[in-house]
Amino acid sequence: MIYLDHSATTPLDPAVLKKMLPYFSRSFANPASIHSLGQAALKAVEDARYNIASIIGAKATEIVFTSGATEANNLALQGLIKALRSKGDKRGHIITSAIEHDSILEPLHMLERYGCKITRLPVNKEGIVSPENLRKAIREDTVLVTIGFVNSELGSVQAIDKLGRVIRKLNEKRQNDWQNTAGRKRGAKPRPIYFHCDATQAFNSFSCKANYLNVDLMSLSGHKVYGPKGIGLLYVKRDTPLEAIQYGGHQERNLRSGTLNVPAIIGLSEALKTAERLRPKYVRTVKKIRNAFVKEVLKLIPEAKLTIPLNNNSPFHANLLFPGVSGDSLLLALDEMGVAASTGSACASGDLDASHVIAALGYKENIARSALRFSFGRSSTLKEAKLAANKLKKAYNMVQYYYAS
Hints:
Elements: E1 2-3, H1 14-20, H2 36-55, E2 63-66, H3 69-86, E3 93-97, H4 102-113, E4 117-121, H5 131-137, E5 142-146, H6 160-179, E6 194-198, H7 210-213, E7 217-221, E8 232-236, H8 251-254, H9 262-300, E9 305-306, E10 317-321, H10 327-336, E11 339-340, E12 342-343, E13 346-348, E14 351-353, H11 356-360, H12 365-368, E15 371-375, H13 382-404
Helix pairs in contact: 1-9, 2-9, 3-4, 9-13, 10-13
């Protein structure tokens, strides 16, 4: 099988597994236990926390372990609003983009039902949010902005540092204006706008230093960086208000109840360390392979079209449209030929829905349904890429034939 679905998940790095194995057996204790075995497990967790913090430019106390990026996103969005409201801050305007992952959009939809107002910023034809559009969307009651770093379907890369700078400068201006206003006219101290970034798809290809990105909250996931599934983290900048959204224990400074997944935490630490070290070589290699694949596909299938250009794209993504056929049918045909990819469409209750991400670019529904995502990784080769392109040509001809029949 030629695996071109690294955006969905990555294989566990054998070196990461080796680091994890002792914590399934020899060092199996619960890190909340006060005996020596438990304290040894706790030390391993805290060493991992410190290592991860140093990688993303944070303090160890700013790392909260979760079960993955979905939980981290939910904790960031719901936990922030909950914490602010418990302090009497009733602001409820949240800004996001039209192409966010469902683990952002669905929590926001829930918050909308509880009175929050959501602004969904449009993207241009390359899937990019404009800093100027963000600036214009901010209101007096804006409390949170949440924008993903790399889109999981398109691979479009947001200028998170620039978006964060818009928010930071506005916060600074409001603070300075308040301080420079005469005491009696000051009014209430301005409250900051917080910035959350889902960086799940970004870490393999881009530096995720929290201070450089100007973020207050950032989500990461283990299984996207050749680590284990079922583990992730939320970076929470010091003094950012946050309350737990699940209860039953006092782990993670009362922010995330539940017995810590020690082997997975060790694996996450090792995976992030490896990804950070390999990033320069990885980007050069995988970009070359991805570009060769796209070039071959567009030569073999003239009808195919890139959803967005590759110039502002992550180096391992390629999203292509195949007008006249269903992406799901093409995906199944490819699977039969030994190529694993992904479609931008989803099957819900028997109905095929066009991806909201592709639709946000302005494509009509029938075109959006033809999208396929190919995502490359460390094990990808030029030989496999060219073979996959040829198999895609055969699959396309076969599906097109049945559609025409």
